[in-house]
């Protein structure tokens, strides 16, 4: 049946705005409330022995939102780095930011670099925050790197295979996501980890992100544990394999 605990969980943290609107509060209050869920999910991931957690915080398309909301999101990102990085470090969490950070304010870029440097050698949990990230951007920057390597003469275009592409995607040193969660009720990928999630198990919940707590996360993990992943094989083949390799 395969592993019951995913090695890598990827989450689209959606529904902050609707959580706030339901309470007749500004959307920004929902974003602030969502930070608590980030902490809960990170801590539970450490407890569960999950190796990697990738959280979608800001997409390459989210720049289309009102300026005030974007400003608040940048401010919140900065504040959370300030308040939480030390604790993450103490818990053995390695923090990395995926995405094109060059569009962020300088102070935020500096903070991100400091947090990444501080936590670079931690091994308990690989935490990736996808910010100004898009799956198409990721595949495009991999294509750019492939082309540059060909031009530099260190890669033969005929030798480009899936592994060559995969190796140039962001977060290539981590296992691909096993479990892909989206909160907030929508059933779409919204340009998150397109290549990497080719064989991820999808899990959708109606809970808005600020309501997604440890218990909700454990339900998602239990659902994952009940699935049979087949990777193109038949169910019988999988059962036989499980018998051969001791489960
Ligand atoms: C997700 O919540 C957070 C970001 C995209 C930054 P939303 O802000 O998309 O909340 P809804 O989907 O409008 O409720
Ligand atoms: C996806 O949520 C991006 C993040 C959660 C950061 P959106 O709310 O931006 O996605 P759409 O626009 O509903 O597809
Ligand atoms: Mg949304």
Which features characterize this protein?
247 residues, alpha/beta, Undecaprenyl pyrophosphate synthetase, six-stranded parallel sheet, 8 helices, globular, binds 3-methylbut-3-enyl trihydrogen diphosphate, binds magnesium ion
Percent of residues in helices comes to 40-55%
Q: CATH-wise, what's the superfamily? A: Decaprenyl diphosphate synthase-like
Task: Characterize the largest beta sheet: strand count, sense, and whether it forms a barrel.
Answer: 6 strands, parallel
Average per-residue pLDDT, rounded, comes to: 97
Classify the fold: give the CATH topology. Undecaprenyl pyrophosphate synthetase
Question: What sort of overall outline do the alpha carbons produce when their principal axes are compared?
Answer: globular
Give the names of the bound compounds: 3-methylbut-3-enyl trihydrogen diphosphate, magnesium ion
- Unreliable stretches covering 5 or more consecutive residues: none
- Give the H and E element order: EHHEHEHEHHEEHH
Please tell me how large the radius of gyration is: 19 Å
Spatial ordering of strands, largest sheet: 3-4-2-1-5-6
Give the name of the CATH architecture: 3-Layer(aba) Sandwich
Family: Belongs to the UPP synthase family.
Cofactor: Mg(2+)
Enzyme class: transferase
Subunit structure: Homodimer.
């Amino acid at each position: 049946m395969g592993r019951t605990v995913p090695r890598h969980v990827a989450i689209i943290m959606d529904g902050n705005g609707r959580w706030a609107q339901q309470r007749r509060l500004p959307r920004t209050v929902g974003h602030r409330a969502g930070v608590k869920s980030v902490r809960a999910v990170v801590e539970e991931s450490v407890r569960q022995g999950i190796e990697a957690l990738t959280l979608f915080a800001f997409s390459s398309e989210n720049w289309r939102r009102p300026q005030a909301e974007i400003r608040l999101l940048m401010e919140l990102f900065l504040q959370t780095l300030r308040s939480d990085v030390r604790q993450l470090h103490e818990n053995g969490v390695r923090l990395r930011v995926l995405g094109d950070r060059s569009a962020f304010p300088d102070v935020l870029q500096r903070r991100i670099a400091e947090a990444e440097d501080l936590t670079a050698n931690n091994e308990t949990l690989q935490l990736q925050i996808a910010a100004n990230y898009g799956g198409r951007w990721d595949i495009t920057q991999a294509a750019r790197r492939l082309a540059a390597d060909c031009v530099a003469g260190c890669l033969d275009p005929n030798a480009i295979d899936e592994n060559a592409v995969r190796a140039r995607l962001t977060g290539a040193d981590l296992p691909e996501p096993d479990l892909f969660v989206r909160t907030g009720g929508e059933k779409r990928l919204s340009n998150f980890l397109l290549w990497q999630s080719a064989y991820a198990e999808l899990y959708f919940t109606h809970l808005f992100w600020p309501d997604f707590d440890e218990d909700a996360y454990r339900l998602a993990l239990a659902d994952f544990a009940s699935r049979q992943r087949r990777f193109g094989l038949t169910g019988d083949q999988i059962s036989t394999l499980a018998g051969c390799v001791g489960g």
